[in-house]
């Protein structure tokens, strides 16, 4: 297992090894080396890896694991390509948590709103202004009985932060932004992009509720494989199959899922296999938000939101199928 640091001085390349100890019948992770590789090309990283493993036997390595960057996984000149060229028996194992995150991003590409940018913009809107923070707290206290939460910062490289931000107090934020003047809210870039305040745009609230519905299962999957106290390799196939079946059950007819048996790669999101709109698995709060939107806005917008969920599920699944280890 190999990964690079992001230090601004010397860049370290951390190398860990997973070893099977026959005497105790267990697999354990051990630190091997941390060479300096300031010019992080695939060739330089591969040379550093070979040098670190020279005291061991590279030919006995069974698999290589790294993040999913091009320098590591590039099909033309990545570290993995160089390893397979000299040691064709080495199996390529990607970081399953990173793979899951890529599947989520594949699904979110079809959303009409850039959710990642939305949360970043909202955080920085309040970040350096004690006046705005106080105004938000005052408005919250006048509308709700609970204490206002901190506006969280979404970090796109932290796989578990999106769900926490989605579950934030966006009802209170909607009320706050509606009470602001146009000159004040125009300072937020996302408002200019979406014509009006992103948290008050008709599609935003149902989409946030929808993400609150689908992200917990992905976070549970990620947390399982981020455990460092036990070996979870044996659970990978079972858990990936469970997650794909869970996603498929929200948009596909049961007979379409059972027809493929254990080979879930054959699942098809063709319209003939899809559930009727009213039976789609969107989550109870999403349906409530859609009903509210139908009353406040043109019902054709609600129909668009309902239909947009199918490509989201499909892109999540295609992300898994494309990036699976």
Would you give an account of this structure?
- With 325 residues, the protein is mostly helical.
- It folds into three domains: 2-94; 100-110 and 213-323, no CATH class; 115-200, no CATH class.
- Helices cover 51% and strands 9% of the residues.
- The protein has 15 helices and five strands.
- It has a three-stranded antiparallel sheet with strand order 1-2-3, with helices on one face. Strands 4-5 form a two-stranded parallel ribbon.
- Helix 11 (204-225) runs antiparallel to helix 12 (236-249), helix 11 (204-225) runs antiparallel to helix 14 (284-296) and helix 14 packs antiparallel against helix 15 (299-323).
- The chain starts with a strand and ends with a helix.
- The relative contact order is 0.10.
- Residues 299-308 have low confidence and may be disordered.
